[in-house]
């Protein structure tokens, strides 16, 4: 591949679409992003407008392609990353009759609770690798079947947001193995839709997209869209994979014991294995990267969203000051000792996924005294997110993963303090790749492999430049070792109270 041949990666995220162009060495040639809102008309709902996301994809692609061509680059392929677990109902004309229902939507909590502890639910988890939780499209379909029969009966297709984009672009319904394996409807062993899961949801295979490999190439872009973006109709598009597994690829976390951690709005901990692997306790997911590589790990609901809550609800006065509010928050947190002088925060502001998988959990400050002030609360929130991330690491260790390094991406990497807190809680070195666009790069690398530009992913680790490394500090490590078991015990002990409080809150808001 010559110097100016460029591969573009598009990452359709929860709060924005990011598009980046890369050369053969993984260097960013151009990038663009476009934000869009998350709609929550009812407290349990978390939806997005499909047209807003479609326009964001077209806009960012157009901007990146224009920058590439202006600078004598040549786009040779486009590949896609996407958030998992979205669900859209289409009518017989292929038009959406729902918004895109995101992973954060909790309308199907009761369906998940009922299924989770049954033999049927446990069997579905073992075969599909998707934990039984309201995020799961399977459980969302069960909700529609029981609670919105009008939509359920009108829907001729049930698809995710990336499938919708490809349908608009090419007029075909295809889904990569990676996104499919996050639906709760896809059998990891057979790489096909799971008949028992489909029966439970009450749908037919014909109502779903055709599963294809993550390196699947499609051509024949709609001519009007091709003209709008500024690319030829026969440009190769790679279907790509989910943002989670592609973040591992994009940061070079492919070797045994190399773990990728990302914290954006939410967070996740993931590592690559060579065969489908599930957790006997049902705490971890298992999703496809390729036909021969799988990613096992766990997501947390509350990452950057918890820090944003601190900014907006505890420190609204910072909005009136000049400078970045997050820099001010971090500076105040830095004034407080590790452990926040014994103040803990359970960061369950939007329920929790791994390793608890309990949508009823709530945020909790534990240990408040007269000596604590707002600075302690900031520090406790930052530490609470990391304690929760480490709980996922502990679950991975229980199933045989032996982490030796952690490679990190996401918005939290902008904060040296937060990265150091991670090193001290994880008790391992934290490696920060120089490029922040892990999922975009991962998508681009899939396209490079699909088109024969690279033979395999063995050289990816060398392509990923490490910008910074944080080493654990003994004094902080000793403090966190005392606090970690208290943190883990709290969530378990409060489980029945979380449930009772959820019922009260539900009654208040309805």
Automatic annotation (TrEMBL):
<dbReference type="InterPro" id="IPR018483">
    <property type="entry name" value="Carb_kinase_FGGY_CS"/>
</dbReference>
<protein>
    <submittedName>
        <fullName>Gluconate kinase</fullName>
    </submittedName>
</protein>
<comment type="similarity">
    <text>Belongs to the FGGY kinase family.</text>
</comment>
<dbReference type="Pfam" id="PF02782">
    <property type="entry name" value="FGGY_C"/>
</dbReference>
<dbReference type="GO" id="GO:0019521">
    <property type="term" value="P:D-gluconate metabolic process"/>
</dbReference>
<keyword id="KW-0808">Transferase</keyword>
<dbReference type="InterPro" id="IPR050406">
    <property type="entry name" value="FGGY_Carb_Kinase"/>
</dbReference>
<dbReference type="GO" id="GO:0046316">
    <property type="term" value="F:gluconokinase activity"/>
</dbReference>
<dbReference type="InterPro" id="IPR018485">
    <property type="entry name" value="FGGY_C"/>
</dbReference>
<dbReference type="InterPro" id="IPR006002">
    <property type="entry name" value="Gluconate_kinase"/>
</dbReference>
<dbReference type="InterPro" id="IPR043129">
    <property type="entry name" value="ATPase_NBD"/>
</dbReference>
<dbReference type="InterPro" id="IPR000577">
    <property type="entry name" value="Carb_kinase_FGGY"/>
</dbReference>
<feature type="domain" description="Carbohydrate kinase FGGY N-terminal">
    <location>
        <begin position="7"/>
        <end position="250"/>
    </location>
</feature>
<keyword id="KW-0418">Kinase</keyword>
<dbReference type="Pfam" id="PF00370">
    <property type="entry name" value="FGGY_N"/>
</dbReference>
<feature type="domain" description="Carbohydrate kinase FGGY C-terminal">
    <location>
        <begin position="260"/>
        <end position="450"/>
    </location>
</feature>
<dbReference type="InterPro" id="IPR018484">
    <property type="entry name" value="FGGY_N"/>
</dbReference>
């Amino acid at each position: 591949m010559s110097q100016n041949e460029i591969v573009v990666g598009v990452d359709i995220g929860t709060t924005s679409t990011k598009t980046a162009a890369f050369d053969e060495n993984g260097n960013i040639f151009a990038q663009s992003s476009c934000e869009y809102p998350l709609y929550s008309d009812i407290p349990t709902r978390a939806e997005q407008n499909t047209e807003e996301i479609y326009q964001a994809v077209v806009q960012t692609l157009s901007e990146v392609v224009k920058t590439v061509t202006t600078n004598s680059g040549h786009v040779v392929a486009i590949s896609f990353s996407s958030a998992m677990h979205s669900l859209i109902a289409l009518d017989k004309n292929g038009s959406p009759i729902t918004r895109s229902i995101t992973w954060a939507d909790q309308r199907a909590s009761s369906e998940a609770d009922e299924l989770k502890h049954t033999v049927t639910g446990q069997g579905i988890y073992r075969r599909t690798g998707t934990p039984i939780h309201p995020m799961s499209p399977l459980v969302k379909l069960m909700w529609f079947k029981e609670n919105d029969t009008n939509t359920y009966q009108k829907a001729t297709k049930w698809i995710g947001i990336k499938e919708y984009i490809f349908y608009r672009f090419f007029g075909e319904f295809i889904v990569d193995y990676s996104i499919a394996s996050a639906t709760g409807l896809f059998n990891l062993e057979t790489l096909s839709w799971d008949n028992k899961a489909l029966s439970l949801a009450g749908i037919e295979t014909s109502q779903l997209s055709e599963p294809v490999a993550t390196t699947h190439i499609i051509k024949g872009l709609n001519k009007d869209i091709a003209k709008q973006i500024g690319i030829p109709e026969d440009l190769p598009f790679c279907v790509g994979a989910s943002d989670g597994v592609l973040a591992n690829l994009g940061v070079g976390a492919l070797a045994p014991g190399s773990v990728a951690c990302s914290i954006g709005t939410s967070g996740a901990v993931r590592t690559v294995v060579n065969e489908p692997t599930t957790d006997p306790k049902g705490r971890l997911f298992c999703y496809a990267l390729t036909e021969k590589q799988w990613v096992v790990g766990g997501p947390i609901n509350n990452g950057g969203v918890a820090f944003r809550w601190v900014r907006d609800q505890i420190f609204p006065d910072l909005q009136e000051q000049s400078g970045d509010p997050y820099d001010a928050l971090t500076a105040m947190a830095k004034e407080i000792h590790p452990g926040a002088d014994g103040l803990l925060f359970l960061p369950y502001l939007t329920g929790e996924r791994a390793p608890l998988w309990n949508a009823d959990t709530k945020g909790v400050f534990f240990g408040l005294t007269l000596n604590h002030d707002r600075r302690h609360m900031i520090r406790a929130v930052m530490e609470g997110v990391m304690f929760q991330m480490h709980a996922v690491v502990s679950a991975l260790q229980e199933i045989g993963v032996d982490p030796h390094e952690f490679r990190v991406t996401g918005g939290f990497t902008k904060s040296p303090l937060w990265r150091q807190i991670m090193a001290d809680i994880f008790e391992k070195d934290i490696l920060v790749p120089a490029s922040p666009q892990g999922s975009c790069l991962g998508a681009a690398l899939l396209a490079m492999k699909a088109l024969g530009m690279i033979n395999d992913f063995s050289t990816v680790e060398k392509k990923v430049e490490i910008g910074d490394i944080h080493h654990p500090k003994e004094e902080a490590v000793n403090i966190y070792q005392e606090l970690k078991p208290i943190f883990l015990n709290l969530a378990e002990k409060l489980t029945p109270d979380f449930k009772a409080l959820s019922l009260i809150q539900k009654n208040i808001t309805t």
